[in-house]
From TrEMBL:
The keyword Phosphoprotein applies. Residues 139-204 form the HTH luxR-type domain. PROSITE patterns: HTH_LUXR_2 (PS50043), RESPONSE_REGULATORY (PS50110). It comes from the Bacteria. It comes from Methylocella tundrae. This is Two component transcriptional regulator, LuxR family. The modification 4-aspartylphosphate is found at D55.
């Protein structure tokens, strides 16, 4: 698994890497590190990245528009925002822009680890009090907001494929599949695979 940590503070980059190592043990992830926008986008273009931890306030970054640019450049890469900003509006916009989670840097090490663990297991994490906001970001049964990669994952789900089968057929990691499925559920406003498949089939019928 290849993890890109984009933060301009070396101490935090090391701390995040240590947390990820402990969560993925005994597997040993490979890490890429970026301290500014130029390095971040260079790595996204050159390397196969399975997970991105992103600080939107790095040098050269302009905030949420950069998240949109990242989603356009590397739609298959799950992006977890790590930020000192906890404004509810920013959190909601980040989730709307495709972030797989939003973890405040103000969390304790244990809470940060628990938040990241929930994302690695396919969940979505937002600061306490913002969960309701994040859950309302998608419209039930609406396929349009999904990226081509998310549509591909949803199509595989509709044929009964397991996460491992989807990962193998799309040449992505199991973790990436989990994060895509979580994002699909959020965007469609559903809670189960069956509900997501119904939405997918309804969309196919509507376009026949």
């Amino acid at each position: 698994m290849n993890v890109l940590i984009a933060d301009d503070h070396p101490v935090l980059r090391r701390a995040f890497a240590d947390i990820i190592r402990s969560l993925l043990s005994p597997a040993e992830p490979a890490f890429f590190r970026a301290a500014d926008r130029t390095r971040l986008f260079d790595l996204l273009r050159r390397e196969e990245v399975d997970l991105l931890l992103l600080d939107l306030c790095m040098p050269g970054m302009t905030g949420l528009p950069e998240l949109v640019a990242i989603r356009n450049l590397a739609a298959a890469v799950p992006v977890v925002i790590i930020s000192c900003i906890e404004d509810p509006g920013i959190v909601k916009q980040a989730i709307n822009c495709g972030a797989a989670g939003y973890i405040p840097k103000t969390l304790s090490a244990d809470d940060f680890s628990a938040a990241l663990k929930s994302i690695l297991e396919g969940g979505v994490y937002v600061p306490t009090g913002e969960a309701r906001c994040a859950q309302k970001c998608g419209k039930a049964g609406d396929i349009d907001p999904l990226t081509p990669r998310q549509l591909a994952v949803l199509g595989k789900l509709a044929t009964g494929k397991s996460n491992k089968e989807i990962a193998r057929e799309l040449a992505i990691s199991d973790l990436t599949v989990k994060v895509h499925i979580t994002t699909i559920f959020r965007k469609l406003g559903v809670e189960t695979r069956a509900q997501a498949i119904v939405a997918f089939q309804r969309e196919l019928v509507a376009h026949q």
